[in-house]
């Protein structure tokens, strides 16, 4: 088994441990695609306008509700805002049943309305002012309207793509008798960026590294040539939701492995979100599982029926194996109790940990290439901040350390970049943007 493992691991490490020269090539490719997207030319990176074009003033006040649909979890966040400071924050969390991810859109949005009703109760006569953080690729038409371009993160609910998701939510709220007015449609990356801006004026990006992975950045309006003259009037910059998760379908730049091909073919959106499928928590577990299947096929790992089943390995498992103590006690427990690996031992846990490290390090290095690209685009002088939310960044210490180290290597002479955990940026940011939107209800902020 040892000889088979050494040969297998060497081959996998060659594919997954990306060199800095490869990352520089990826960063240049992303920059080119972002430029095309901002110009309205065909591109794998859409560069979607958020219509958020002013920074917080610190005078915003009122009571708001933020809805956060970032993936398989849905949260209702109630809060008060006083002079730009959030108070009395209360959040309720709901899990979207997997069956609803593929059910008709009215059923999915009715479920969301039910959750909102449970959270808000029936005690208030006032109409709730809502910021709807909807973390999927949306063609935003104005601050409170946007059409879903395509489902990601395992969703494929029919009847939603091409439709205004705010209108769908409003219809469900009305059907369920929920009093609420959607003031703003927000991508979670945009919300994370705005949430950090209230504390840190050097923040240039808001990134999510969790179930999915995406980033929003400030762009000067002269660089967004696809914006109309009316949309540019009176503003100098706008937050752009890059939707970088779709990078590279036709470019041929990403170092795609056979495991990535298998993951893509088994997904509901074949050929799309190729970058995201290499870096996000939703797919990390499956990548590790496929590696273990190959190890079993090469007789380098004991035959384990559970591991032959799709989605039996999750991002949680990847995080445990990547960051377990030297005793690998938790990892061994997973081998024995959850997967039923014959002869589960410290040795087999260590082998699995090596594969988990490959998955995590590749993801972190690819994200670092993206940050290298956006730092070049925003042209910020001096130290700048990228606000980061999401379970992978928050809980996986190896991911964080590898990401920071790689960013430092890729920007040896450039501005220093601080990656700051901005917890609940999507929820708080949704409320803050709703507050900014409430007075004017215009297409731009």
Q: What do you see in this structure?
A:
43% of the residues lie in helices and 19% in strands. The C terminus is likely disordered. It contains 15 helices and 13 strands. By secondary structure, it is an alpha/beta fold. The chain has a 6-stranded mixed β-sheet with strand order 1-11-10-9-12-13. A 5-stranded mixed β-sheet has the order 4-3-2-5-8. Strands 6-7 form a two-stranded antiparallel sheet. The longest helix has 33 residues. A hairpin with a 3-residue loop joins strand 2 and strand 3.
What's the helix and strand layout?
Elements: H1 2-16, H2 20-39, E1 48-49, E2 62-69, E3 73-82, E4 85-95, H3 105-120, E5 128-134, E6 138-142, E7 145-148, H4 165-176, E8 180-186, H5 188-197, E9 203-209, E10 213-220, H6 229-232, E11 237-241, H7 258-266, H8 276-279, H9 281-297, H10 315-323, H11 329-338, H12 346-378, E12 384-389, H13 391-395, H14 397-410, E13 417-421, H15 425-437
Parallel strand pairs: 2-5, 5-8, 9-12, 12-13
Antiparallel strand pairs: 1-11, 2-3, 3-4, 6-7, 9-10, 10-11
Helix pairs in contact: 1-12, 2-12, 3-4, 5-15, 7-9, 9-10, 9-12, 10-12, 11-12, 12-14
- The percent of residues in helical segments reads 40-55%
Count of DSSP H/I helices: 15
Terminal-residue CA separation: 61 Å
In N-to-C order, the SSE pattern is HHEEEEHEEEHEHEEHEHHHHHHEHHEH
How many beta-strand runs?
A: 13
Rg computed from alpha carbons, rounded to a whole number of angstroms: 22 Å
Percent of residues in β-strands: 15-25%
């Amino acid at each position: 088994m040892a000889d088979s493992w050494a040969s297998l691991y060497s081959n996998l490490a060659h594919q997954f441990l990306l060199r800095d020269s490869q990352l520089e090539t990826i960063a240049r490719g992303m920059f080119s695609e972002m430029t095309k997207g901002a110009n309205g030319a065909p591109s794998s990176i859409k560069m979607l306008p958020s219509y958020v074009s002013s920074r917080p003033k610190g005078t915003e006040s009122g009571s708001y509700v933020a809805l956060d649909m970032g993936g398989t979890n849905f949260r209702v966040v109630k809060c008060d805002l006083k002079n730009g400071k959030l108070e009395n924050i209360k959040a309720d969390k709901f899990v979207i049943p997997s069956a609803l991810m593929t059910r008709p859109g009215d059923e999915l949005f009715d479920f969301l309305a039910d959750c909102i009703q449970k959270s808000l109760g029936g005690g208030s006569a006032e109409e709730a002012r809502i910021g709807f953080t909807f973390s999927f690729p949306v063609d935003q038409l104005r601050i409170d309207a946007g059409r879903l371009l395509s489902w990601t993160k395992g969703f494929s609910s029919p009847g939603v793509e091409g439709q205004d998701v705010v209108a769908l939510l409003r219809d469900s709220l009305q059907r369920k008798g929920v009093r609420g007015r959607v003031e703003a449609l927000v991508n979670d990356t945009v919300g994370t960026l705005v949430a950090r801006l209230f504390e840190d004026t050097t923040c240039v990006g808001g990134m999510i590294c969790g179930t999915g992975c995406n980033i929003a950045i400030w762009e000067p309006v002269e660089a967004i040539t696809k914006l109309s003259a009316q949309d540019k009037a009176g503003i100098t910059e706008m937050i752009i939701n890059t939707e970088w998760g779709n990078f590279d379908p036709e470019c041929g730049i990403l170092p795609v492995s056979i495991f990535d091909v298998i993951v893509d073919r088994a997904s509901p959106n074949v050929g799309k979100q190729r970058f995201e499928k290499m870096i996000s928590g939703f797919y990390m577990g499956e990548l590790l599982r496929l590696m273990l299947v190959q190890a079993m096929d090469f007789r380098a790992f004991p035959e384990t029926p559970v591991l032959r089943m799709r989605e039996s390995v999750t991002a949680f498992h990847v995080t445990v194996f990547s960051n377990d103590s030297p005793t690998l006690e938790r990892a061994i427990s997973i081998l024995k109790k959850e997967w039923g690996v014959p002869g589960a031992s410290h040795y087999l846990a260590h082998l699995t940990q090596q594969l988990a490290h490959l998955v995590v390090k590749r993801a972190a290095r690819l994200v670092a290439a993206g940050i290298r690209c956006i730092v070049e685009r925003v042209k910020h002088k001096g130290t700048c901040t990228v606000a980061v939310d999401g379970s992978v960044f928050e809980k996986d210490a190896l991911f964080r350390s590898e990401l920071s180290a790689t960013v430092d290597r890729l920007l040896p002479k450039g501005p220093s970049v601080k990656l700051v955990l901005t917890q609940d940026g999507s929820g708080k940011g949704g409320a803050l943007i709703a507050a900014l939107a409430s007075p004017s209800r215009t297409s731009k902020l």
